[in-house]
Amino acid sequence: MDESLWRAIVRCEPTFDGQFFYGVVTTRVFCRPSCRSRTPRPENVRIFTSVDDAIAAGFRPCKRCRPDEDPLGPDEALVECAKRVMDRLYSAPLKLGDIARELAVSPYHLHRVFRRVAGTPPAAYLLQTRVEAAKKALATECGRPITDIALAVGFRSSSHFSTTFRRIVGCSPSRYRALHVRSQAEQEVAR
């Protein structure tokens, strides 16, 4: 067996999900590389390139990681669902408990899985989503007050919005708007 595949199994690496599956001869069960089940002995492992190959070899799907169902692992699917909730409700006063309740998981589990899979905590993803919505509004709604935009995208105050925007984007909201308006004007003159 290839050493990189074995490392992926031992470390339960989700990046290898879908690239291969492994079966355990002693249990006749096959899993995704990210499965959190007990690590098998290397001599009992068989590698498969697809679910069909594993089933044809007489292995059944793991009940924990369900390799025969969603192409994403359960953790990746949870993170995708959480992102969809945040993308849909970013303008609301959203808390981790609200997202976890909607997904029927504990807030601790959601935070831990989200951070591991996405590489960032849910709060940072939500802030980034709000800032992206604000950037779009600042660029397209030139006459709208910045405070209105800040409140509309879910920030609790204009000062919190300005501080966060400056930290993430690198300039103030008003400077961002001015740069975008000037850039649009230059493009129109060039036509």
Explain what the structure shows.
With 191 residues, the protein is of the alpha+beta class. It folds into three domains: 3-61, DNA Methylphosphotriester Repair Domain, CATH 3.40.10; 74-120; 124-190, Orthogonal Bundle (Arc Repressor Mutant, subunit A), CATH 1.10.10.60. The chain is built from nine helices and four strands, in the order H-E-E-E-H-E-H-H-H-H-H-H-H. It has helices at 3-11, 51-56, 74-89, 96-103, 107-118, 122-140, 146-152, 158-169, 173-190, and strands at residues 21-24, 29-31, 45-48, 60-61. Helix 3 packs parallel to helix 6 (122-140). It starts with a helix and ends with a helix. The mean pLDDT is 90.
Please summarize the sheet with the most strands. Answer: 4 strands, mixed
User: Which fold name fills CATH's third level, the topology of the largest domain?
Assistant: Arc Repressor Mutant, subunit A
Name the CATH homologous superfamily of the largest domain.
Homeodomain-like
Average pLDDT score: 90
Topology order in helix (H) and strand (E) letters: HEEEHEHHHHHHH
State the end-to-end CA separation.
Answer: 61 Å
Task: Provide the CATH architecture of the largest domain.
Answer: Orthogonal Bundle
